[in-house]
Amino acid sequence: MRRALQLLLVLLAPIAVFAAMVAADRLFGAPARVHRYVVRLAMPPIAGEVGLPPLEGPPDASRPLIVIDAGHGGHDPGAGAGPIKEKMLTLAMARALRDELLRGGGIRVALTRDDDRYLLLPERSGIARRLKADLFLSIHADSAEGSEASGATVYTLSERGSSDTAQRMAERENRSDTINGIALEGQSDAISAILVDLSQRETQASSEEFARLILREARGNKLHMREAPLQSAAFVVLKSPDVPSVLFETGYISNEDDVARLISPEGRKTFAEATARAIRVHFARQSQR
Fold it and tell me: Could you give the CA distance from residue 80 to residue 87 in angstroms, rounded to a whole number?
């Protein structure tokens, strides 16, 4: 019995010493010796989906709807080393195109942004999908070293760029971040993959057709285009599987002549009229199918 008591004391002695040390430290230790191993940060609440913009035009849901996206915005100015920034030009062009479409009537229009706000790339195309848009057009202004490059370019989606320049441009822009009414829930993975693939092919074909219409109307309206005006690249903003989507680089902000054209009322008018005609022809063709 005595031996068992001795063993118990041997086991409890280190615990008692440690407890005494902790108690003494808390009672008599200097404040500088108090360590905080847990840092608590107040995090902002999780935001929901970005709010949807207003629809303008005829109050008839059967009328075609285009969502116009003014690239960049807010803390993301886009291209432009001087006082003129891409985000300013794209918003002015988007407003000019909206006004031209509304003036002609028959088409509903929504802008992803109508002020200097920042939107993530998926939010931009997400607005078009949530509104069940028939067409999505993202407006940008390109940039290049030097000042020789000039002219507008129309981009459609591809996993690999049609040129090294197109691929680099897409990578730069991407750094800034129901399929056709068929419910995929409950479908097998194989069937879902087939439905998505078919939808994407149809959407891609419609996007390319619209891009060619822009080129046709731009040339007819003497809108200055690049030598190779139709390009493709893996733009995140164009990756909607069920909304035909095109990105329009309206010119080079690094080129003085292009900038003078883009900031002038005449230049915006030429862009708006040519692009609006392409949109109307596209919707007219779609309505006949």
Answer: 9
For residue 69, being part of any structural domain is answered with: yes
- The set of residues, in sequence order, having a beta carbon less than 8 Å from that of 233 and lying 6+ positions away, is 155, 157, 158, 161, 162, 166, 167, 169, 170
Q: What is the pLDDT of residues 188-236, one digit of tens each?
A: 555 444 444 555 778 899 999 999 999 999 998 889 999 899 999 889 8
The domain tally of the chain equals 1
By residue range, what is the domain housing residue 158?
Answer: 65-287
Structure tokens at 156: 């459609």
* Radius of gyration from C-alpha coordinates of the chain: 29
In the beta sheet, which residues pair with residue 230? 154
Q: Please name the amino acid found at residue 211.
A: A
| Pairwise CA distance, residues 152 & 89, whole Å | 14
> What was the pLDDT predicted at 162?
46
In a domain, 20, yes or no: no
| Phi and psi torsions of 6, nearest 5° | -65, -40
pLDDT tens digits, 69-82: 999 999 999 998 78
Looking at beta carbons, which pairs linking 207-210 to residues 24 or more positions away fall under 8 Å? 207/156, 207/157, 207/238, 207/244, 207/245, 207/246, 208/156, 209/282, 209/285, 210/135, 210/244, 210/246, 210/278, 210/279, 210/282
Six token digits for residue 229: 């005006």
pLDDT surpassing 90 at residue 283: yes
Indicate whether 265 belongs to any domain: yes
Instruction: Indicate which CATH number applies to the domain containing 242.
Output: 3.40.630.40
Question: How many other β-carbons are positioned within 10 Å of the β-carbon of residue 9?
Answer: 10
Question: Is 15 inside a domain boundary?
Answer: no
